[in-house]
Amino acid sequence: ISNETYRAHALVVLAPHLTDVLLPQALDWAREISNETYRAHALVVLAPHLTDVLLPQALDCARGISDERYRAYALIALALHLPDVLPEALDCATGISDESSRADALVALAPHLPDVLLTQALDCARGIKSEYHRAKALVALVPHLSDLLLEALDCARGISDQDSRARALVALVPHLSDLLPEALDCARGISDQLFRTNALQDLIKTLTPSSVDFPLWQQTLDGLASLTRPHFLEALPDLAPLIIKFGGIEALRETVAAVDDVSRWWK
User: What residue numbers bound the domain in which 240 lies?
Assistant: First the structure.
């Protein structure tokens, strides 16, 4: 395939199905892609399937990518299978000038970093000027640095854009259940309907029967009233445990029956 875009897309689709015999050829195809974005993407999708013999070759290819963002993405994907590459991947991520991409790289790295590298990752996160992107990186590190929670929360609360602040607060809810009312209020206050919907749907996924009392349940339902019918229906499966908690299994049956009735009305 001469067109690099199509070649990269073909590799993405074929990668999970390639045999060990075909993987060397696929890697050669990836290495020949001149566009660094597509080359990095091809390496990322191939990485989980490469043999021990091919991984070093892919690593050499990744190291040859000049754009720090795409080099970091490729190195991170390979580091999951070559743990010795993690320090190099973190160094590369730290050097990314674009703060959004730097935060994304830290988020991808965080679950895999050994303790010895967490301090470096934290320093990198703290150096991000954008409150939202800094909060995003800090939140990703919280499960591995528990004393970081309050710092991440302060950073999230300092985000001026309400949509971004809501997303950061929602991301912290699994680590701080007392934050639920604040995150809900913030999400409900987003003026843009699409952003508000996304924030509320993300928040719903964090709710558990043990974390929600009846007043908060009422506030949640009030917030969901602003969703369109399709978006509300998408949220229902995540709400099922709470419906059972506050109304019993019969309430869930009645909810399903009501949805069925409405769907027949609107056919």
Answer: 182-267
